[in-house]
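Following up on my earlier thread - several people asked me to post the actual chain instead of describing it. Fair enough. Here it is, all 161 residues.
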Amino acid sequence: MQKKRDHIAESIADYMAMSSEEQGAMIARVMEDQPFLMGFLTDVADEFSDAQHESLVDSVMILLNAFIAAGMPVGLIPGPALEEVIKERTEAYTEADVLLPEVSESPKVFQDLRNLAIVKADLNVDSEQDLANFNLMLDILITSVERMADYEQKQKDGPES
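Reply from S.P.:
Thanks for posting it. Predicted structure:
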């Protein structure tokens, strides 16, 4: 029986092992490849501490690497698709306990990336509202990337899937 790979854990380790220059080059490439997603992240930078914002950017890099490692490259996330995810996830968080990972459509991925942010960005010392805002933002990023990867995979597999 083949062991199932944890692409997120592997991508976290790979990304954290990169030099600052390698991470910077990757971020620059993603800014070109994902202008709507990265523009959105840039627009909300003032709402988070530098460490928190850096953790959100790192999360996008890790997610994209994980999908590439799984053989599922992520195409351009269009602005309207991003806006739809923002609206949908904001509504989901309004109606739930925003501090629980189960609010996310991908609780394990969410938990793994949030745990990294807790260590890197010291999320444990922030107010409950700050943590809730961070959780919402992280979930928007995860959902946007995952949905585009899923869409791309369906396009690749053809209409019979």
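The CA atoms of residues 72 and 108 lie 19 Å apart. That should answer part of your original question.
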